Amino acid sequence: MLTMERLAIVGFGCAGYHALEAIRQAGCRAPVDIYSDTGLPPYNPMLTTYYTAGRLPYQGLFPFGTLEEIARRFDARVLTQTPVQAVRARDHQVVTADGRRETYDQILLSTGASAFVPGSFVGLKGAFCMRTVADAVRLREALEKRTYRRAVIVGASMVGIKVAELLHQRGCHVTLADMAPHIFALAAYPEVSTLIEGRLRAMGIDLVFGQAIAGAEEHTDEQGAVQGYTVSLADGSTLETELLVLNIGTRAATGLLDPAEIAIDRGVVVDERMHTSVPGIYAAGDCCQGNNLQSGQTQIIGLWANAGTQGRVAGRNMAGVSDETDGTILHNITHFLDMDFIGLGDNRLTGEVATYASPDRRFYLQAVLREGAPVGFNILDNYGVSGILKAHLIKVLRGQPSRFTPEQRGQLIRFGLKESFIDHLEANKYD
Ligand SMILES: Cc1cc2nc3c(=O)[nH]c(=O)nc-3n(C[C@H](O)[C@H](O)[C@H](O)COP(=O)(O)OP(=O)(O)OC[C@H]3O[C@@H](n4cnc5c(N)ncnc54)[C@H](O)[C@@H]3O)c2cc1C
Q1: Residue whose CA is closest, atom 37 of ligand 1?
Q2: Alpha-carbon distance values, 185 to 34, 263, 370 (Å)
Q3: Mutate to test the pocket of ligand 1, among 37, 257, 335 (most ligand atoms within 8 A of CB)
Q4: Class assignment of domain 119-248?
C-alpha cells in the first residue's frame, strides 16, 4: 500500500533526486520535504572538471533541470540553504542548522561525501579541492585570474587525473603525487597502471608515487595573497609549485547522525532495501555502505550510477513499494588525456592473468580469473567492450549461466578479441 506519511530527503544530489523521482513514479502522493545545504539543483560532481576547463556551460552541471522545475514536476517542498545539523531518530525529527525542528515519518539520508583534507593541509587558504560546484567555480576563477605554470596535484585517483588533464591542457606543468605506488590504486592492476604512467610521462606529466606527502608550506606576498607552495615529501625532498590541488579522498557525510542511535561504519550501514538499522530511516549514495556483490560485504561504492540505483530503491520502499538491490561491483570508467581506462571488479583479487594487446598496444585488456571464472578486468582504450564484460562479470558473480550471446561474441571479435581469448573468459564451471 502506498504511504501517505510525511517523507523527508536530506541532501539533494544524485541519490536524493532519484529517490524523489521513484517516490512519485510509484504513485505516492505523500508530502516530501527536501533539505539541501545549497541553493543549487542536484548536480553531477563528475562534470565539475569539465566546467572548470571551460568545456561545459554552467547549466550543464545540473542534469535534472532547475530547482523550480524539479519541485513542480514532483510536487516537493525543497528547503534550500538549509543544512541539517542532526537527525534525531528517536523523536523522528530533523534539526536544521538554524535551530528549526521538523518532523518526518520516513527519511532518506543522501548527504553524499565531502573532500577529505588531512590535518597537515588544514589551514592552507589557497589550496583547492574538487568535489562541489563551489570548488569548480573557485578553481575556474583562479585560472582566469592567473596563468599558473606549475601545479602539484595530490591524489592520483579518478578525480586527480581529471584535474591533471585540465591543467595540462592549459599548458601548466603538472606533478601528480600519491602515497600509493601506482595511479588508480583502487581500480587498476599494476601492469595497467604502468602502461598509463608511461603514457602520462611521455606527455610531460611528472609522477611522484609511493611516498606520503608530509605537508605544504604556503608562500604569500606582502598583501597576503598566496603565491605558491613548498610541498614536502616523506623522504625529505620538496616540490615547488604555484598551484596545489588536494584530491586525497572523500569522507561520507554522516556527521548529522548519532552513532549511538544508528549503525555507522565508514558510511551509514544499509541492507538490500537501503534501510538503515533504524525503522523508517533509509540511506543511499556516497554516504552509505551498500552491498559489494563481489565481496558480499557492505562498502561505500562512490559511483554515480550506484547512487542513482540506491536512491531509486530507497524511494520505492519509502513509497510503500517493496524493492531491493543485491548491490554492484566496483567499476570505474574514466576518459582523460585521450585515453579510456575501465576497471571492473576488485583489483586486489589475484589469480590467473590473461591479457590481450592490439598490435599498436593502444587497446590493452587484462583479465584476472579464479577457478576458470573472471573476477576482474582492466581495459585501456576500448570503451566498446566494457559493457559486455561488466555484464558478464556480474552474471558470473550471481552464479548465472555465463556464455556470451552470439551478438556479444560478434562485438568482442569486432573490437579485436580472438575467439580463443573469448572462450577463456567464459566461466565454464557455471554452465
Ligand atoms: C571530480 C569527480 C569525478 C568523478 N568521477 C566519477 C566517475 O567517473 N564515475 C562515477 O561513477 N562517479 C564519479 N564520481 C563520483 C560521483 O559523482 C558520486 O558517486 C555521486 O555524485 C554521489 O551522489 P550522492 O547523491 O550520493 O552525493 P552528492 O552528489 O555528493 O550529493 C549529496 C548532496 O547532499 C548535500 N548535503 C550534504 N550534507 C548535507 C546536510 N547536512 N544537509 C543538507 N544537505 C546536505 C550536499 O551538499 C550535496 O548536494 C566523481 C566525483 C567527482 C567529484
Answers
A1: 111
A2: 36, 28, 21
A3: 37
A4: alpha beta
